[in-house]
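2024-03-11 09:14:02 DEBUG pipeline.ingest accepted 1 chain
2024-03-11 09:14:02 DEBUG pipeline.ingest length=86
2024-03-11 09:14:03 DEBUG pipeline.predict start
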Amino acid sequence: MISVQTLLTIISVLAALVFGYIAMQRGNKHDIQSTTEERASMTATIMTRLDNIFETLNDIKRDNKDLRDDMQDLKERVAILEHGGK
């Protein structure tokens, strides 16, 4: 027959294994959640930076178009001056 000490030892070991497994599962869930939060934060940061780059690119395009329009105006003015001077 199993003694009381042996029975208590077996129950203690089983309880330790169960509680260890439960703690491990909770830790894994916490790790997954924190990883997901980190990825969401990184994604938001990347999207913000991409939006800023997009806005800057649009500003550059707008400035470039304005410069082309100014250059066209200057070409026309120079052509008028050259033609009038002859």
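2024-03-11 09:14:41 DEBUG pipeline.report The longest helix spans residues 4-85.
2024-03-11 09:14:41 DEBUG pipeline.predict end
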